[in-house]
Amino acid sequence: MNAITRKLIAKELYVHRSMMLVASAAAVFAALVSAFGRTAFNVGAIAWITAVIAGGVMLAIYGILNERKEHSLEFVLSLPISIRQYVFAKTFGLLLCFLVPWLAASASAVALVLASPGVPDGLLPYVIALCGYLLANFTVVLCGALHARSEGLMTAVIILTNMSVSVFMFVVGALPGIRNHLESPTPVWNGTVFNVLLVEAVVIVVAVTLPLLTSARRRDFL
């Protein structure tokens, strides 16, 4: 990784610092609210998920779509850096930006489960799986933003990925290996949980790698 690539990554972190802070604070606050009763838990859980998803969508919109509108490729081509290196910097930089609120949200959710007497510890594997899915979901949005050639297509990607979160929660939550242990006093880590996490890891790797194999070969990716 050369100096320019590192500076481009640092630029993403600097430009989106406010968004990272707001999303992190919103997710942590939502997790805290969830500790105050069943109704508060339901409201806080929805707000928690919304904060993470919205943060990712905003990063994709402002980090990629806006640059495409502003024809930033002309600036990129003036730098002593290849298209592949720029795609790497953009992908890795925005991923780092998302990891900040994602880690804050994940840590607060785990703390809620372990520290709150009203929340069974058996919910922890499901929460971890959901956190993993939200990360995988962002990488798919990021991959789609780098490949989409129109705002309409990007909008479709955002809508579908947002809808998929609800589908994931219901489908995975209904798996016997997870459903049967949600109310357990201790977390149960079984093959079902690990298989879900493995699929999420594969999706993340593919979504992060794909732009380097495709978009980086096109001089008009922005």
Protein described:
With 222 residues, the protein is mainly α. The chain has one domain. Helix content is 79%, strand content 0%. The protein is built from 9 helices and no strands. The model has no long low-confidence stretch (mean pLDDT 89).
Provide the number of structural domains.
1
Helix fraction, binned, reads: over 70%
Q: In this structure, how is the largest beta sheet organized?
A: none
N→C terminal distance? 21 Å
Q: Runs with pLDDT <50, length 5+?
A: none
What proportion strand? Answer: under 5%
Apparent shape? elongated
Structural class: mainly alpha
Strand/helix succession = HHHHHHHHH
The tally of helices reads: 9
**Rg computed from alpha carbons, rounded to a whole number of angstroms:** 19 Å
Count all strands and give the number: 0
Average pLDDT, to the nearest integer? 89
Protein name: ABC transporter permease
InterPro entries: ABC2_TM (IPR013525)
Membrane topology: Multi-pass membrane protein
Organism: Luteimonas viscosa
Short account of what is shown:
With 222 residues, the protein is mostly helical.
Per-chain topology:
Elements: H1 3-15, H2 17-33, H3 37-69, H4 73-77, H5 83-115, H6 124-147, H7 151-173, H8 176-179, H9 191-213
Helix pairs in contact: 1-5, 2-3, 2-5, 3-5, 3-6, 5-6, 5-9, 6-7, 6-9
